[in-house]
Each structure stands twice: as C-alpha cells, then as structure tokens.
Design brief:
heterodimer; A: about 325 residues; alpha+beta; 5-stranded antiparallel sheet; 13 strands; rod-shaped; B: about 190 residues; 4 helices
Chain lengths: ~325, ~190
C-alpha cells in the first residue's frame, strides 16, 4: 500500500472518502448521491474539500455491491491468462445483469484448487461518471476495482485500458531502448578503454625500445657465454671418466686374471675380455667392487691352455644401454 | 496486411535478427574483444618485463662482466686455431706430446666429424691409435685428463698385441681412442 493515498469507496447511494498518509487516515468524509447524474458532482464535491485539495493527484476507487457485480465462475475452459477476460467479456450476458447498458468486465483465475474464475462487472456509465468526476476535480484515476479485489481486478474504461496498454508498451520499448543504449555505452566504453590502454602500452614500449634492445643484446651475449662455459665445464667434469673407470677395473681384477681386450665408451658402457683361472671370480670381483655397472658374462666361458697352464677365457659386458 | 499478420511478421523478423545476433555478431564481437584483451595482456607483460630488465640493468651488466671474465679464463682450456682443420692439427700435436710423455707411441690419427657447437665454440675430435704398455696407457689417459686444455676421451679400446700368446706383464697394448676438444671459431 502506498504511503499516501486518496480512496473513494462508492456504494449505490453513498460515497465514502479517506485520505491516508504513511498508513494513517488523516481525513475522512462521505456524501450521498442520487443517480448517475449526481455521482460526478458528488465526487467533485468530496475531492474539493480543503484537506484534499493539493495533497494528492491520484485517486483509487473501490466499488461496492450491488453497484459492481462479482461472480465466481466455475467449469470454464482452461485458457491462457490474457485470454480469460475477453472470454468472460464475450459471455458477459450469461454471467451478469446488463440492464441494457454496456458492461466493463474483468476476471482472474482464483487461487487454490479447481478452475474457478473470479469475475466482476460494472455498468460502463458508472465508470464514465466516476471518471468525469475525478477528472473534473483535476485528479487522475489510478484504479477502479471492486471492494475486496483491489490490485487484482480492474474495471477501467476500455479506452483507458487501451491507453494504459499503449503506455506500458511504450514504457517497455523505452526501457528496452535505454537498456540497449546502456549496453552499447558499456561496450563502447570498454572498447575505448582497451584501445586507450593499448596505445599507452605501445607508447611506453616504443619509448623503452632502445634500452630494451641494448639489454637484449647483453642478455644474448650472457646466454651465449654461459653456453660456452657450460660446454667446456661439462667436458672438464667428464675428462677423467675413462682413467677412473680403467683404474677401478684394473684394481678390481684378481691377480690371476689378465686382459686381452677392453672397450670403454662414454657413459660407462663397454666390455672386457681376457683370461683368468676362474672367470666367475672376475665377474664377482667386478660386481662387488662397483667398478662397472651391471657386469654380465657374454657367451660361454672357454677353457684354454696357455703356456702349459689352464685358463678360462671370459668376455664380460657392462653398463646399461640407454633406451632410445 | 492485418494487424495480426503485421505483428507476426515483426516477431519473425525480430527472431531472425536475434538469431543472427546470437549466432554471428555477438560471438564475433566477443572473440575480437577477447583477442584484444589477450593482446593487451601480452603487451602489458612484455612492458613489465622490459621495466624489470631496465630496473635490473646493473645486475645484468655485472653478470655480463662476470661472464666476460669467465670467458677470458676459458682461453687456456681451448685448443688453438680458428678453423676445424687448425684445431684438429693442434689436437693431434697435443696428443703426440702427451703420448710421448707417457711412453706410448702415436701410430696414427685422423679427424672425426663433430658438429657440436656452443655459442662461438666448436668441437673437434680426433681418432688416434697408439701402442704402449698398461702403465703407458694409464699415463696417457691421466695426461689427457690433467692437460690444461680440456680434452675428453671417448670410445677407448685396448687390445693386447699378442692376445693368444705369452702371458707377461710387459705385454704391448694397441690403444684406440677418440679425443675431443673445443676451439673458438673465427669470426669469418
């Protein structure tokens, strides 16, 4: 409920009016009228009260029975909400008394179970008279509704309904346009901001181009130098690999063994071949000393007689093959 | 045209425009917008990096000076010569000197292709054949490892000259190995 409101409650012979401010009734009055001809004047008289004049510009009208006819209609076909009023309006003569006058009808689907429809109708001249009285007093008619249905049913004149629909459509269009313009402005502002940022960054990059290029050159030289130093340092680290490996192997071999061939490759791979009193002892010594990685006998051990003594000829491979 | 048909035509038109906007215009615009944002982000990162580099200019020049000194210190570790042929010759000569010092005999040498490079440095390799006893071979390998010029030995093969013959500690060994070293390539 609005905080300030002026309400007219119109019965068949009496009009009651009240003026509320912030939910409190600050003025009330009533008058009687005799027929439709007098209704316009009666409304004008009430609205012309000093307390009312200049306080508000809008009037809400509630119609009491039997001035307004209210019905609960059942067993109506289920139709969309916006088709309900036209349907009841078309069949108004079945549900309401017409008295030879055109009716203004409104309807809504009742809440709760079933398909009941709440409908109300008022003779059009009544609303015209109310309209004239309100307009004559310089007020604007906010709503005309049956008592108990305020905000749910509306009994405005057809022309006023059409005008309000037009206004609503216009408002919607304006709102859509405003939203569209707002979006365009947001997009435009964002794009503008992006372009501005890019220009600022480009300007700054251009300003720093020369020092950055000089530094890039220095960085490149540093990277180049580091690469060269690393390459030589790596070589220096690996340079004694062969001598270490050879020393470790010769130290690991038993006194009763001698080597006839040896191959060492980078990474500790290779093979060693030779003679020993016991080939298995050579393998065991190489394995236990840790001189080489994964030593294994290659082929069968052959027994040979050299200088009158029996020797075992061995061939041992070692090192792990790198997977491709 | 009746108001109903006009309304329907308008609705159809609006739907077509909406579909066109949703399917073409909005994705394209959004794509361009995202691209522009990404590009700006990248350029902003580049700018930040440039500013950091400039702010750290002193550290960078200090590093450059250190590297320069390290490169000067690198000189004795490199082979002489500015071309692969010159460096190979230098390597062969050096190998001969070390072999002589370790009582082994250099019986043959030939350059091996090596395309490894690091900055201005290039690597050369020489495959050499030598004869000597086990003490000489050990001395040779130690000499290669301790030489001021950084030399790396690879693919070492030892073969007793008389493998099936007499068993004696003074046996003659045939040694084959590949020795590699670095040189600084000339500007040209």
């Amino acid at each position: 409920m609005p905080s300030d409101s002026f309400r007219l409650v119109i019965g068949p012979v009496r009009i009651a009016a009240d003026l509320s401010r912030k939910g409190q009734v600050v003025w009330a009055g009533q008058t009687e009228y005799a027929g439709l001809e007098d209704l316009t004047d009666a409304i004008a008289r009430l609205v012309a009260e000093p307390e009312v004049i200049g306080s508000l510009s809008r009037v809400r009208v509630e119609l009491e029975r039997p001035l307004v006819q209210c019905r609960t209609l059942v067993d109506l076909p289920t139709v969309p909400v916006n088709a309900l009023r036209p349907m009841v309006e078309q069949q108004a003569h079945r549900y309401f008394r017409k008295n030879g006058k055109p009716l203004i009808v409104d309807a809504l689907r009742a809440n709760g179970k079933g398909s009941g429809v709440e409908a109300a109708a008022v003779e059009e001249p009544v609303v015209e008279a109310i309209w004239a009285g309100v307009r004559a007093a310089g007020f604007r008619l906010e709503d005309v509704a049956p008592s108990g249905y305020v905000g749910r049913l509306s009994l405005h004149l057809p022309a006023e309904r059409a005008r309000r629909r037009r206004e609503a459509r216009l408002s919607l269009r304006r709102l859509s346009l405003a939203v569209g313009i707002l979006w365009l402005m947001v997009v435009g502002a964002t794009w503008f901001n992006l372009v501005r940022q890019r220009r600022e960054i480009d300007r700054e990059l251009a300003r720093l181009a020369d020092p950055v290029a000089a530094l890039a050159l220095v960085k490149g030289e540093i990277a180049l130098g580091q690469g060269m130093i690393s390459a030589v340092d790596l070589g220096a680290e690996q340079r004694d690999e062969m001598v270490r490996l050879l020393a470790a192997m010769t130290a690991a071999l038993p006194d009763s063994a001698f080597i006839t061939s040896l191959s060492l490759k980078h990474g500790g791979r290779g093979f060693v071949g030779g003679y020993s009193k016991r080939a298995s002892e050579v393998l065991a010594r190489l394995e236990s000393s840790g001189a080489v990685v994964a030593p294994r006998l290659d082929g069968l051990v052959a027994r040979e007689v050299i200088a009158g003594s029996e020797w075992e000829r061995f061939s041992i491979t070692f090192g792990e093959e790198k997977s491709p | 045209m009746t108001p109903g048909r006009r309304k329907m035509s308008l609705l159809v038109g609006l739907v077509i425009v909406a579909i066109w906007l949703a399917a073409r215009v909005i994705p394209a615009a959004a794509g361009r917008f995202m691209d522009a944002r990404w590009a700006i982000g990248e350029r902003a990162r580049l700018l930040a990096q440039s500013r950091r580099d400039i702010a750290n200019e002193k550290i960078l020049f200090d590093s450059a000076a250190t590297i320069k000194q390290s490169m000067i210190d690198l000189a004795p570790k490199l082979l002489s010569g500015e071309t692969a042929a010159q460096a190979s010759d230098a390597l062969t000569s050096l190998l001969g000197v070390i072999a002589e010092r370790s009582n082994t005999k250099l019986t043959g040498s030939n350059p091996v292709d090596d395309s490894t490079m690091a900055g201005g440095l290039r690597r050369v390799a020489v495959h050499a054949t030598l004869d000597g006893d086990i003490a000489g071979v050990t001395g040779l390998l130690q000499g290669l490892a301790q030489e001021a010029t950084v030399l790396t030995t690879d693919d070492l093969q030892l073969l007793a000259a008389d493998a099936a013959g007499t068993v004696t500690p003074t046996e003659v060994l045939r040694v084959e190995l590949t020795v590699r070293g670095w040189y600084l390539a000339g500007r040209n």
